[in-house]
């Protein structure tokens, strides 16, 4: 940081000082040095998706005159806990400017010409939630390790992922592409190298990256990718349309732009919530996706998203993109460890009937895990079907397609109740779960507060090394050796640790989910 208050003159890119000003393509933004990292929050990367643009592909950001403060996160996109003030309907407008919800944030340790690696974070949230103001998604600690970090708000729920007649599919991912284009055009003035961009994301963010890898519109926007806990759900247009029709019917309308544009965001989030509560009842009509936590996933429409990622990547679609694939050991325990979340026996039986591969999935799981209770088998099955096996098969596909790919698993946990559950990995990489929080957890292991700093530092270092050089520090993955980095309190490199599940799913082909025939 340089303490210099020179004005930003016409044609210049910087005004350095404690509140640095930088000229982007749309206008000048003023950030703030917070310790050793300069932070710029709430920068518009696309036009407000409001009124006639509500269900459209993102348009260019509107230019502004003067200096715009970039000191606060932008307003979140519509979601269940914030459905009222953001993005007006076509029949009305807001007065507080909160329609401008497609914003991004930048953390940079050097605003000079260092050409630092750039890491673009794509947050998860079951395609239903997305808010970069979440303190667990703060990029400061990762940026302090020597990279420029970017995060963005993108549309979710009906606005971002429902199949709507008259609107493009995958609007939330189109928002992500718009943010990546902003990075290409602007990140150099924040100290980043547009030729060395790594996208990394978890859960819905990880599956979005799976889609980005095979989307023609995203080609050339990033050099490397990290997919964490990628859910294996991608929908055919028929399945997506059936779900959207059901949500719209809750409101007595059709799933068209003309009908939905007249409704306020809260009406759509409330209708979605009602359908989520009833989803298990749709399993015969919608298939296995009805047993997941969300009615949304990327839509394989054959144009914006040509096909599911495994097939395209195995065919070489992303061979020029270095890929790091990760998952946690106990993915689904995030859901089963919640109070009152113990599944009913009929729910577990339905899961084995609809999720397990082949016609004898129940028997195969019992044979592979003879020590497990039926409830534990249910958790293992869901971990496998939704996260672990789609991730493993993505690594297999990348290798088959001639790409460079690495695989890792988080096995460390700080408490026995939750284990290495879904979401723990990104908290460690970003460093937003600290020793004090771990120490305060009543089920924490005796030494967990001491261990978390080391485990988080190792993962963060490996992620930064990958973004910098294209290798995280262990041997690449191949289907024969299946070399995997496993993060315990002391990390080890070994053959893939979930061998029993791998064998069960070895012949399965992950692809788009369709309506049952």
In short:
32% of the residues lie in helices and 15% in strands. It is an alpha/beta fold and 517 residues long.
**CATH C-level class of the largest domain:** Alpha Beta
Distance between the ends: 62 Å
Largest sheet, in brief, is:
11 strands, mixed
As for the number of domains, it is 2
- In CATH, the architecture of the largest domain is 3-Layer(aba) Sandwich
How big a fraction of the residues is strand?
15-25%
Helix count, DSSP H or I runs of 4 or more residues:
17
Mean pLDDT: 91
Total number of strands:
15
Give a written overview of the molecule.
The protein starts with 13 loop residues before the first strand and ends in a 13-residue tail after the last helix. The N terminus is likely disordered. The strands form two sheets. An eleven-stranded mixed sheet has the order 4-5-7-9-8-10-11-12-13-14-15, with helices on both faces. A four-stranded mixed sheet has the order 1-2-3-6, with no helix packed on it. The protein folds into two domains: 215 residues, Alpha/Beta hydrolase fold, catalytic domain (Rossmann fold, 3-Layer(aba) Sandwich); 196 residues, 3-Layer(aba) Sandwich (Rossmann fold). With 517 residues, the chain is of the alpha/beta class. Helix content is 32%, strand content 15%. It is built from 17 helices and 15 strands. The radius of gyration is 22 Å and the shape is globular. Helix 11 runs parallel beside helix 13 and helix 14 crosses helix 16.
């Amino acid at each position: 940081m340089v303490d210099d208050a020179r004005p930003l003159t016409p044609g210049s890119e910087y005004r350095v000082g404690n509140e640095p000003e930088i000229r982007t393509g749309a206008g000048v933004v003023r950030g703030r040095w917070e310790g050793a990292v300069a932070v710029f929050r709430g920068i518009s990367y696309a036009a407000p998706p409001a009124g006639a643009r509500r269900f459209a592909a993102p348009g260019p950001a509107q230019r502004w005159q003067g200096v715009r403060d970039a000191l606060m996160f932008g307003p979140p996109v519509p979601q269940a806990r914030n459905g009222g003030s953001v993005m007006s309907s076509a029949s009305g407008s807001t007065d507080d400017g909160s329609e401008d919800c497609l914003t991004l944030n930048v953390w940079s340790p050097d605003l000079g010409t260092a050409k630092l690696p750039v890491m673009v974070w794509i947050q998860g949230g079951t395609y239903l939630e997305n808010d970069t103001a979440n303190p667990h998604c703060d990029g400061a600690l990762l940026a302090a390790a020597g990279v420029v970090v970017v995060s963005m708000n993108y549309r979710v729920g009906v606005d971002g992922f429902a199949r709507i007649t008259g609107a493009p599919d995958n609007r939330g991912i189109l928002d992500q592409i718009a943010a990546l284009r902003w990075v290409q055009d602007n990140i150099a003035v924040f100290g980043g190298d547009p030729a060395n961009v790594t996208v990394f994301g978890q859960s819905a963010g990880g599956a979005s990256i799976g889609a980005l890898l095979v989307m023609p519109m995203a080609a050339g926007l990033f050099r490397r990718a990290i997919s964490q806990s990628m859910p294996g759900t991608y929908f055919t247009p028929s399945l997506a349309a059936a779900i959207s029709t059901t949500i719209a019917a809750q409101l007595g309308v059709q799933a068209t732009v003309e009908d939905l544009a007249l409704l306020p965001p809260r009406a759509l989030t409330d209708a979605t919530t009602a359908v989520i509560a009833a989803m298990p009842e749709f399993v015969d009509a919608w298939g296995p996706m009805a047993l997941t936590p969300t009615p949304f996933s990327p839509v394989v429409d054959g144009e914006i998203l040509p096909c599911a990622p495994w097939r395209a990547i195995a065919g070489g679609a992303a061979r020029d993109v270095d890929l790091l694939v990760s998952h946690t050991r106990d993915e689904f325990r995030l859901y089963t460890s919640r109070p009152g979340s113990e599944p009913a026996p009929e729910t577990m039986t339905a899961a084995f009937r609809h999720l397990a591969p082949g016609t004898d999935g129940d028997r195969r799981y019992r044979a592979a895990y003879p020590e497990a209770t039926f409830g534990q088998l249910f958790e293992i099955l869901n971990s496998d079907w939704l996260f672990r096996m789609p991730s493993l098969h993505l690594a297999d596909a990348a290798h088959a397609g001639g790409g460079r790919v690495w695989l890792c698993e988080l096995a460390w946990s700080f408490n026995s109740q939750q284990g290495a559950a879904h979401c723990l990995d990104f908290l460690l990489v970003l460093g937003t779960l600290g020793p004090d929080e771990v120490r305060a957890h009543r089920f924490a292991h005796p030494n967990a507060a001491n261990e978390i700093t080391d485990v988080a530092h190792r993962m963060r270092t490996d992620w930064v090394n990958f973004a910098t050089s294209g290798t995280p520090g262990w041997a690449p993955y191949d289907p024969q050796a299946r070399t995997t980095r496993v993060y315990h309190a002391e990390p080890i490199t070994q053959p893939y640790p979930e061998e029993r599940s791998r064998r069960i799913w070895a012949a399965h082909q992950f692809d788009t989910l369709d309506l049952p025939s």
